[in-house]
Structure formats: structure tokens, C-alpha cells
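Fill in residues.
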């Protein structure tokens, strides 16, 4: 039987006159690597904010894990990075993760394993303030993985990184996905979604332009109403 991690139905968000999310529906099955693709302002972050319970929806519904858990219980099984990584600058990577474990009541035993996944084992005793943006982002991913979430949500994780940093983050996402973790990745980069994701929801002005497999999107590019200017912005 298929197991649905997240189901969104007819979601709307209005900020005054701005219809930021306009009738978005989406089902993410266990093991999917789902992209939300769209130019800046298309409603990606707002959609993520709603399902993470940090933005209030205007109308519509969403259910985590087939509605089997209360939202706050469900969100304990969700790892999310929706802001710039923010840790204590004068503490080491490992000390920062120990603090996260302490605050969230997670066993410290996972720290070494997660530092390994993000390729930071050899820098675990370095202070956070010495890290590049890419390393900070990787530490944030390790932190979000500490409790072995069912799904990892990332909002534009490669923004601002150099090509090597971008490559590293994409490889880490693929590694985490290959280990069975479901992924939801918001991105404005078409090639990022093509390289990393199995499924994609394409948004423009908060509306769905396409929803399906990445393979079908590539096969049918041009069949859905993507205009040249949108493609460039994607
Ligand atoms: P994306 O993440 O795809 O760049 P957002 O979800 O951040 O898009 O924004 C969607 C639309 O909602 C944009 O027009 C944005 O200006 C607007 N918006 C987002 N957050 C707010 C807010 N707190 N108040 C008013 N408008 C907002
Ligand atoms: Mg955004």
C-alpha cells in the first residue's frame, strides 16, 4: 500500500490583494523526491510555511501521514530548513548539534552519523563562524536529520553558493533520498529540479502549471503553458 507523507488539497493564501497560493493540491508519497519549482514570488515558501504551521492558510486543507497524527506530533517527524542556517558562532559544529539534541530531546548518538552524511566529520571541532555558507547549509541539513525525519524539506538550499557548494548540497540531497528519506525541495532552478527530483510541482503566481514526474515534464516541455520569459526565470 502506498503511504502518503503529505497531502495538500485546494490550498489558498491571500495577503491582501496578493493571491500567493491559488488552489494548490499535491500528494507526496513515501520515497518521492518532490520539487516545487517556480520563479521568485510564485508561492513556494508560502506553501512550505503553511504545511509547517508557521503561516496561516486562507482556505484549503493539508494532512501529514494520512491524517494519523495531530499536526504538532506530525511535525516532529519532519525535518525542515526554511531559513538561513543560524547556529552559535563561537561553538563548534558538534557542540551546536549537541545543543540541538538537548533542546529537542534527541539522543546524542546520531551526531557523528549525520555529520558524516553531510561530509563535515573532519570539521566537527571547528567553530561555526569559520564555516563557508555551503558548510553552514550542510550543518543545517545534519541538524534537521538528527531525529531521522520521514521527510526533509529544503527551501532553496543552494541559493548563494558557489558551483562546488551547489554540487555538494545536491549530492547530499540525492544521498539522503537514496537512504529512503522523502524530500520536498523548493527551487527556482529548472536544472536543479531535473537533476535531483523524481516529481515536480511547477508554480506560477501561486497557481499550478504542472504536477507530475520530472521525466514527463521533460518529455512534454512546451506542452504546458510555459512562456519563454517564465522558462528563463525558472
Ligand atoms: P517564493 O517562495 O516562490 O519566492 P513566496 O511564497 O515567498 O514566493 O511569495 C509569494 C507571494 O506572496 C509574493 O508575491 C510575495 O511578495 C507575497 N508574500 C509572501 N510573504 C508575504 C507576507 N508576509 N506579506 C505579504 N506578502 C507576502
Ligand atoms: Mg521562497
Amino acid at each position: 500500500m502506498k503511504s502518503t507523507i503529505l497531502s495538500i488539497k485546494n490550498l489558498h493564501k491571500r495577503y491582501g490583494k496578493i493571491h500567493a497560493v491559488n488552489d494548490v493540491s499535491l500528494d507526496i508519497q513515501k520515497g518521492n523526491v518532490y520539487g516545487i519549482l517556480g520563479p521568485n514570488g510564485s508561492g513556494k515558501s508560502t506553501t512550505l510555511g503553511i504545511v509547517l504551521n508557521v503561516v496561516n492558510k486562507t482556505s484549503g486543507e493539508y494532512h501529514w501521514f494520512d491524517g494519523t497524527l495531530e499536526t504538532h506530533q506530525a511535525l516532529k517527524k519532519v525535518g525542515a530548513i526554511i531559513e538561513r542556517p543560524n547556529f552559535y558562532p563561537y561553538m563548534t559544529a558538534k557542540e551546536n548539534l549537541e545543543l540541538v539534541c538537548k533542546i529537542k530531546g534527541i539522543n546524542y548518538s546520531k551526531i557523528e552519523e549525520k555529520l558524516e552524511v553531510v561530509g563535515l566529520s573532519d570539521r566537527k571541532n571547528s567553530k561555526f563562524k569559520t564555516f563557508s555558507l555551503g558548510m553552514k547549509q550542510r550543518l543545517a541539513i545534519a541538524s534537521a536529520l538528527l531525529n531521522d525525519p520521514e521527510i526533509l524539506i529544503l527551501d532553496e538550499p543552494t541559493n548563494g553558493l558557489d558551483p562546488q557548494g551547489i554540487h555538494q548540497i545536491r549530492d547530499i540531497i540525492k544521498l539522503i533520498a537514496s537512504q529512503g528519506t522523502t524530500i520536498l525541495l523548493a527551487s527556482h532552478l529548472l536544472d536543479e529540479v531535473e537533476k535531483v527530483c523524481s516529481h515536480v510541482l511547477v508554480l506560477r503566481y501561486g497557481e499550478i502549471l504542472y504536477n507530475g514526474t520530472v521525466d514527463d515534464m521533460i518529455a512534454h516541455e512546451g506542452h504546458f503553458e510555459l512562456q519563454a520569459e517564465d522558462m528563463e526565470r525558472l
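The radius of gyration is 18 Å.
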